[in-house]
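Before a colleague's protein record goes any further, I have to sign it off. What it holds is a sequence and that sequence's fold in token form. My question to you is simply how this chain folds and whether the tokens agree. Thanks in advance; the entry in question is below:
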Amino acid sequence: MPDFSYEAEVTRVAKRDARAELLARRRALSAPARAAAAGRVQAELVALVRRLRPRRVTAYVPVGSEPGGPDLPAVLRAALPTDAELLLPVLLADLDLDWAAYTGPEGLIAAGRGMREPDGPRLGVGAVADADLVVVPALAVDRHGRRLGRGGGSYDRALARVPAATLTVVPLHDGELVEALPAEPHDRPVRAVLTPTDGMRTLDAGPGSARGVAPHTSAGRTRGE
């Protein structure tokens, strides 16, 4: 049942205002800055995939100013072991996410909200639960793993199906890892973020802890585990 309390409304307004500010900041990025950030994000994710050698990865096709660039699925697929699979989301009418295998750029079709989706067989909303690595979009993430999405709740539903031990990673632009974000009970935390300048950092997504961001080894840079 929706929460219509004063506190819940304050949180929703705070989220709305934060989204507007973050989207405006992303739109203000120049094309060269976006391209440079995409290259560094891709390099970090490729290094992570080659280190983990996952058998199933879920990701997405970045649109507009989202970090990673529109060719991110092709780059990730090329880095995976030959017997591994990359799944991309298919947005359902109720805004939940189904999943289908990425087979190449020619297998993507235009979908709602500017997204591109694979046109192959759908594997069901539960397919994300079997992923070894889940790459998640967001506008910002705070130091406890709380993410701010675009407001549809699609990835909160998907993340609710992901085991707690699975690595969930959000690519961000510099400055989008923040101290704190407004959160609601249905919001699902993520375990790591990846930014162009600082690479990958693991987060404390556990309730009530203040451990914050821990250093991590990433492409070309060593921070210690």
Summary: The chain has one domain: 6-202. The helical segments are 6-27, 31-52, 72-79, 154-159. Residues 6-27 form the longest helix (22 residues).
